[in-house]
Amino acid sequence: MRYALLSALVLPAVVVAHANRARDVHHPRQAPSSAASASVPASGSATSAATGSSVASGASSAVSGTVAPTTTLAQFSFSLPATNPTAIPISSLSAGTQTTSPTLGVTTTYAAGTTPTFLPNAPPLPDISKLVISSYPALDKPPPTDSPEVQAWIQEVAQSGVQIPNLTPSMAGGCAANPTLLNDPDRCWWTCGGCTDSNDVVSCPEKLHWGMSHDDGPAPYTPNLLQYLDQNQLRTTFFAVGSRCLSYPSLLQEEYMAQHQIAVHTWSHPQMTTLSNDEIIAELGWSKKIIKDVLGVTPTYWRPPFGDVDNRVRAIARAMNLATVIWTRLDAGHTFDTNDFNIPGGTASPSEVVFNWQNILNNATQIDTGFIVLEHDLFVQQVEVGTGYILPAALAFQPKLTIEPIITCLNKPLQDAYAETNDNTTNPPIVSGAQPVTLSSGAPGSAEATGGAQNGDNSGALPVAMLGNTNLLALTGSALLAVAAGARVLF
Ligand SMILES: *[C@@H]1O[C@H](CO)[C@@H](O)[C@H](O)[C@H]1NC(C)=O
Ligand SMILES: *[C@@H]1O[C@H](CO)[C@@H](O)[C@H](O)[C@H]1NC(C)=O
Predict the structure, then answer these.
(1) Is the pTM of this model over 0.85?
(2) Any idea where the NodB homology domain is (predicted)?
(3) Of 179, 226, 340, 417, which one's alpha carbon is 20 to 30 angstroms from that of 25?
(4) Using a 6 Å CB cutoff, which residues line ligand 2?
(5) CA neighbours closer than 13 Å in the CB half-sphere of residue 419
(6) Catalytic machinery residues
């Protein structure tokens, strides 16, 4: 009965713009909008939309955003089957640095040598206090390709037996910058044209099964998401950025030990089709390595940032024993992307993201397969929208959804998600004949170990910026820089 109203009204935005006196007067800062972005509390009826509005009108304008949207944001009306009663009002979420909720921090730490009991033949957890930051590439930058590690991985790829198509990298700038590459069937570029390879994972086989995922962490608000998932007995797939894993190794261990699936999401979050073969190998190799150094296992799945994959990138990933996962796409205009990525940068309103989710849920009932959605756990807004709106709505949705990690929705056991625990029966290795290369960086016992911060994470290394009121964009390098430039990321 709470799902009576499907309100698809797009209300005019009411946005108060202030000139940013300190710096760029051409970029208005956005104050929280008081437009009627209505949320329906779980306990309310569909007509209680006005409740959301009155909450909205009480919002203060004290939120300080570091990123200035160049246009006012459209506010959307939505009606969900349930929301979290303790959710932050959608109108209190806006761009920039927010402190809407305290971070929970690491809640559980695991002693080095603890053996996961939920994975047959899992190796014991490594000692993350011995991680040596200087043994890894600079955070959030494409790793150099002349290091001994990358040179060894280049050799492995060459010896893998996988043919790498001889395709030129795409030009930065997405589809518009590459008109001649768009419909080249030999390239099969997903980002621009939606071409998929038969090995790409783009949905779950069974209808109404949602293969859940969260990209770009681990990050300071990941524990808040983990707590919600735990309380609701949900598990997700974390596409972890290698740089974040080095900054937050204990959070990565917490995700893994809570039996979420851990998968690769590159080292510095670039558009992979723009990179050379060696640069692609460096991005994937370092990401696999930091995850193995923190967890003792190496993922067998990866997701290209922005879904930016073509046959060259696919083949290199396959040669590195990584299967490609994207997200569900109905047609050129409709992919199952909540667009939560664009909230912190100020190019999508939180109400739009919830509205998108409502459309995704409804579209999921129309297709014959299950589905995979793009969502993130990098910034507080993404976690707030996820735990406050997206997940409660999914749990209450009718027809009932089966919510599970992507590996599970593919009808494979969790052990297939890692090279070390995969018994090769349900998930045969893609590569045969490649010789494993053993590397020594990050080796236990180094004097440079930094266990630093109280939670055991190397958080001093980087995303402090995200917690303070400083440069939100320092964090994800090229990814969010695109947002900084005022571009709404369309892929
Ligand atoms: C599917 O989503 C699109 C927008 O992405 C929306 O216009 C359409 O109404 C949705 N379909 C259903 C059945 O809700
Ligand atoms: C699975 O295949 C990989 C790669 O060929 C191999 O190294 C590993 O030993 C195999 N695992 C088992 C349990 O046979």
Answers:
(1) no
(2) 208-409
(3) 340
(4) 422-424, 429, 432
(5) 24
(6) 215, 376
